[in-house]
């Protein structure tokens, strides 16, 4: 969470070997969540409806799994979890759509907050992570750098496309 960066300023300088108490557990629990959600989608949704999220979850499970298994890059995974702050508003949007409350003030307000948190916690966070990875490429082992680079190369376009879809759906009908 953002508070961790205030309480542990060293974290922003060393995302490889430094992590505050509880961070490793948080990332491990997140792997469990993504695994459970992955299995749930496989069992309860059609593949053509969920392939993007299944792909997203696969990338996250691999990247976070490496951090958990090797106790390295936990700080980097913690930064990546900032992206999930926006998920609150994405999920609320889905609930409002399922409840047929699209034409309400609540939906409109959520749409605005959703896009704002999307820019701050998804796009800006992924941009910062990509920049960090690039600037620290000499200090990151080639295999880990490859996994991180591929992960960023997959997540960034996926999030830009989803942002465009949200913008088009909620603001440019």
Automatic annotation (TrEMBL):
Parts of the chain that traverse the membrane: 51-70, 76-92, 112-134, 146-167
Superkingdom of source: Eukaryota
Keyword Transmembrane: yes
A Gene Ontology biological process term: membrane assembly
Keyword list, A-Z: Membrane, Transmembrane, Transmembrane helix
One Pfam assignment: TRAM_LAG1_CLN8
GO annotation, cellular component aspect: plasma membrane
Topology term for the membrane: Multi-pass membrane protein
Subcellular location: Membrane
Domain TLC: 1-173
Full protein name: TLCD2 protein
Organism: Sagittarius serpentarius
Source species taxonomy: Eukaryota, Metazoa, Chordata, Craniata, Vertebrata
């Amino acid at each position: 969470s953002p508070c961790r960066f205030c309480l542990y300023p060293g974290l922003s300088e060393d995302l490889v070997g430094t992590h505050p108490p509880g961070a490793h557990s948080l990332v491990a629990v997140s792997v469990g969540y993504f695994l459970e959600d992955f299995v749930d989608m496989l069992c309860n949704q059609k593949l053509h409806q969920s392939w993007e999220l299944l792909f997203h979850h696969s990338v996250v499970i691999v990247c976070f799994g490496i951090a958990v298994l090797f106790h390295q890059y936990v700080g980097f995974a913690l930064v990546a979890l900032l992206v999930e702050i926006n998920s609150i508003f994405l999920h609320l949007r889905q609930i409002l759509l399922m409840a047929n409350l699209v034409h309400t003030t609540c939906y409109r307000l959520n749409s605005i907050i959703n896009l704002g948190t999307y820019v701050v916690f998804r796009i800006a966070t992924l941009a910062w992570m990509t920049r960090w990875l690039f600037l620290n490429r000499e200090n990151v082992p080639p295999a880990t750098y490859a996994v991180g680079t591929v992960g960023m190369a997959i997540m960034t376009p996926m999030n830009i496309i989803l942002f465009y879809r949200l913008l088009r759906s909620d603001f440019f009908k």
